[in-house]
Amino acid sequence: DAKTTQPTSMDCAEGRAANLPCNHSTISGNEYVYWYRQIHSQGPQYIIHGLKNNETNEMASLIITEDRKSSTLILPHATLRDTAVYYCIVRGAGNNRKLIWGLGTSLAVNP
Amino acid sequence: DGGITQSPKYLFRKEGQNVTLSCEQNLNHDAMYWYRQDPGQGLRLIYYSQIVNDFQKGDIAEGYSVSREKKESFPLTVTSAQKNPTAFYLCASSTYQGQSEAFFGQGTRLTVV
Question: Which of A83, B10, B21, B95 is the most buried (most CB within 10 A)?
Answer without folding.
Answer: B21
